[in-house]
Amino acid sequence: MNSKLPWFSPSSFPLYLAPMAGVSDKIFRQLCKERGADVLVTEFVSSEGVFRRNERTREYLDFDECERPIGVQLFGGNAEHMAEAAKHVVDWVRPDFIDLNFGCPVNKVVAKNGGSALLKDCPTLAAVAQAVVRAVAPLPVTAKIRIGWDTDSINAPRVARILEDTGILAVAVHGRTRDQGYSGAADWGVIGEVVEAVSIPVVGNGDLTSGPVVAKRRAETGISGAMIGRAAMSSPWIFSQVKHYFLTGEHLVSPGLAEKWALIQRHCQLAVQEWGCEDQAIRSMRARLMAYSKGFPNSKMLREKFQHVATLAQIDEIAWQHMAPQEAAI
To answer: Do 140 and 281 belong to one domain?
Structure first.
């Protein structure tokens, strides 16, 4: 067993909820935790914002004890500022680990030499990782990377070895290049090469949509855990489905329509409580509601309604309208 990351052991296979900007906030993390996610990571947080003690940035660090084990993910390209920011985070919220984002493909992050930009600058990547590891020791530090900047510069095995040498204790690998963004297929062959290249746990990420898919990728590559992102956005119960498949070899059917709507309504209610303003909270939920609608009956019509929703009463009305025909058919 890894004493600093105890969720990794020969008999365990942890399921991570991927950190996703605008998605994996405290409410959604807890909904996924209830449904089987083992390890949580915050939305990525700007090290510069933390370094300057920006109050809005600090809000992204908020989590509840029920979410443990949880890591705070930082991004940035300045080793000194990253180290100081990591120390502030540890002092403020005491996470179980710090996670370093070397994978984000978004232009505004890459332009500041953050995220996947550092895949092209291994000396700076190493300096950042080493500085953070030293700054927060003995708290464990992990990292997330992509397989490379583009198809001509796939270097994930080398990057993972560099990170291991700096004291990073686990690495999550998204099987796409920065250039791909979220298009095309994840390259699990490269993820397997990373597993072979290092002795630390490797968490695989990319196109994990069901228990059989996760089991297949685990068998093919020898990953120590799986990180699920976009599939969880529309189906937070995927974690329990994966665990059920691992235990029984059988597919656990998705919740019924009524249970799905109950989850949506609860998510919206919790958002209103968190925001303290119903209109702003529900408007902020529109993109999340779009994701939930995937696979629902009459999903196109549902998305059109979600584009204009602004109150809990409207959510309840839409739920009743879309469940009533199903109930009448039973």
So the answer is: no
Does 6 fall in a domain? no
- The DSSP string of 7-25 is T--TT---EEEPP-TTTS-
Is residue 7, in this structure, part of any structural domain at all? no
Res 158: pLDDT: 97
Predicted confidence at residue 329, as pLDDT, reads 41
Say whether both 318 and 221 belong to one domain.
no
Determine the structural domain holding residue 273 and report its residue range.
257-329
> Which of 69, 60, 68 lies closest to 24, judged by CA?
60
pLDDT computed for residue 146 by the predictor: 95
Residues noted as catalytic? 104
Q: Enumerate residue ranges in the chain where pLDDT < 50.
A: 327-330
Q: What is the DSSP letter of 154?
A: B
**Residue given tokens 């002795």 in the structure block:** 199
Domain count, the chain: 2
Tell me how many degrees the CA angle 152-158-160 measures, rounded to the nearest 5: 120
Same domain (yes/no): 61, 154: yes
The SS3 of residue 262 is helix
Q: Which of 83, 39, 7 is nearest to 228 (CA)?
A: 39
